[in-house]
Amino acid sequence: QTALTQPRSVSGSPGQSVTISCTGTSSDVGGYNSLSWYQYHPGKAPKLMIYDVTKRPSGVPDRFSGSKSGNTASLTISGLQAEDEADYYCCSYAGSHIYAVFGGGTKLTVL
Amino acid sequence: QEQMVESGGGVVQPGKSLRLSCAASGFIFSTYAMHWVRQAPGKGLEWVASISYDGGNQMFGDSVKGRFAISRDDSRNTLYLQLNSLRTEDTAVYFCARSTPRSIATFDVWGLGTMVSVSS
After folding, report:
1. CB-based contact A100 B50, cutoff 8 Å
2. Contact B105 A48 (CB under 8 A)
């Protein structure tokens, strides 16, 4: 059960775009389209931002978008806003025995 | 309003046991698979355990397999996690989460978490 690989931190200025990568293997990220992204402000409940690689739940701004190529998925946040500053985690279905594996998390700083 | 509230966390000695609860409201609990996810201090999220909507299927992460048990009481709209043979590395905030039937391993509602600290 090896965690997916994410950069520890990314940063950007208000209005800019940032992309967070999430790298796994053919047994998780590359093998399934059940790839989701979560926004986490410590002390609050994690929030689902993207699921099935590219889909946005109701209420999530379209500034948030997802993609995947091979074993690497990406979350792009455009038009950065101060309230986007948070930790972001990717998560992939990993098969019938492991079920789910998360990334190590990326801290987004809005400068 | 769909929500889940965890309880039962606390400080416990290594080797001891603890039972966490997650009370759900605002949705038909019995129709959803439910999960526990944890975050150790300074670490990322880690999937811990899952139970199917009918309780018939349960899965566990490698780090807790054989020590933790997951169960549900649909009459009480409550999810449980029994933590046995606790280790210091089990220290974490434990979240309960619901998965949407639209997409496997997608957690669409989360609780705020309950802290478990394993220390002598």
Report:
1. yes
2. no
Q: What does each C-alpha distance from B69 to A43, B55, B72 come to in angstroms?
A: 26, 12, 10
Q: Is there a contact between B46 and B39 (Cβ–Cβ < 8 Å)? A: yes
Q: Please tell me which of the candidates A52, A94, A105 has its beta carbon nearest to residue B45.
A: A105
Q: Are B87 and B59 in contact (CB under 8 A)?
A: no
Inter-CA distances, A24 with A9, A68, A90, B62, Å: 18, 11, 10, 18
- Is residue A31 within 8 A of residue A82, CB to CB? The reply is no
Q: Report pLDDT digits (tens) over A20-74.
A: 999 999 999 999 999 999 999 999 999 999 999 999 999 999 999 999 999 999 9
pLDDT tens figures, B2-50: 999 999 999 999 999 999 999 999 999 999 999 999 999 999 999 999 9
Query: Using DSSP, how many helices (H) and how many strands (E) does chain A show?
Result: 0, 9
The rounded distance, in Å, linking the Cα atoms of B99 and B77 is 15
Q: Which of B44, B47, B63 sits opposite A100 (nearest CB)?
A: B47
3-state helix, strand, coil in chain A (%, to 5): 5, 50, 45
Calculate the CA A103 to chain-centre distance.
8
Residues of A in contact with B35 (CB under 8 A): 100
Instruction: Give A85's contacts (C-beta < 8 A, 6+ positions apart).
Output: A108, A109, A110
Question: From A48, which residue of chain B is nearest by alpha-carbon distance?
Answer: B108
